[in-house]
Structure formats: structure tokens, C-alpha cells
Amino acid sequence: MKIKISHLSKSYDGTPVLNDLNLELDERQPWCLMSPSGSGKTTLLRLLLGLEQPDHGEICFLENETILKQPPRFSAVFQENRLCEAFSPTENLVLGAQKGISRQELRRELSLLLPEDCLDRPVYTFSGGMKRRVAICRAMTAPSQIVVMDEPFTGLDADMRKNVIRYVLDRLEGRMLVAATHQREEVELLGGRVVELPPLH
């Protein structure tokens, strides 16, 4: 899988966020977007996901140098966790999980990131870091070819961050990962390649 971004531009209310961006990403390693706040990282991820449309330019997805007629399947971790707060973590995963994965298997996945006694509690009782782990687990158990993450490890302490990153890498299984981060340590733990979006001024 390869993503080819050509002459991509996007502005909001006349203010440019991305301007004539050209970029190629492949699945050989995780890709980490590292640029100052306001430089367009989140906008680029939303464009990849098809949640926004560019003003100019295009994004092509290629398999063996052939452009795919249909966009690939994505899973995502947004800056907001976007969980069903009244549901348990297991129920949140069931909503988006790959067909054929049993509820028991999903509980096993969650138990790698959460204490056992939390798996049946409603998510609204969780701390921010625990909700983050549910959102990450949901993305990794969903059917996808590309995983997109926007500041995914925010709110996790240093030891938990290492554990969660190890979990993400173990569960990639050949999928492409594109993540926005401000932390150089996260790039190193992911073994990622840095993409710095060019400044607009």
C-alpha cells in the first residue's frame, strides 16, 4: 500500500492550512507527522480519512503501483476519544470490530491495556488515560488497511505509553500507520519516520 499526495491545498475561511503539499508514504514503517501546532497535521489526517475535501490537489492510494478504484479501509484514533460513554469498553469494541472476532477475544485484547475489573464498567467512569487506551484498542481491532492516529498517546504516563506503543506495533500486522505527534520519544518507540509539514510562511 502506498499513499501519494500531490499538490494538496486546504484553507479555512481564507486562511491556508496546507499549501501545495507533495508526499509519498508507504507501509514499510510507521509515519509520524511532527510539526508545530496549527501546521496542518490534523487537517492532513482528516483529508486522508475523507472527512474533509481538499481545495486543490489529490490523494491517491496505490497497491503495486496501481491506483485503487475504492479507498482503503481506515481505522482511527482522534484527539477526542469518541467513545460511547454509557457502554463498557467491550461494547465499544464490538461496535467496530472485525467480523469473526468474538466478544471473549475483544475482552482479551482490552485486558492487555486495562485492569480486568474495568472491562464491564461504563466508560464514563474511566480516567482520560483509560479512555485513550480503549480508543486505541478499538482502532487496532477494527478491520482496516491504514491506521490513522492523532496525538494518540496523550494522557498516558511514560511506562504506559511504552506498553501501549508496543501493543500498537504488535497489532499492526502489515497495516500502514500514520500518526501525528509532538513527542520525539514516541517516534523512536514506534520506529517511525518523521514527516515535517512545511511552514506556510
UniProtKB/TrEMBL annotation:
Keywords: ATP-binding, Nucleotide-binding, Transport
A Pfam family recorded for this sequence: ABC_tran
Gene Ontology molecular-function annotations: ATP binding; ATP hydrolysis activity
Classification via Gene3D superfamilies: P-loop containing nucleotide triphosphate hydrolases
SUPFAM superfamilies hit by this protein: P-loop containing nucleoside triphosphate hydrolases
Annotated TM spans: none
Domain ABC transporter, residue spans: 3-200
Protein name (Swiss-Prot/TrEMBL): ATP-binding cassette domain-containing protein
Origin species: Candidatus Enterocloster faecavium
Organismal lineage: Bacteria, Bacillati, Bacillota, Clostridia, Lachnospirales
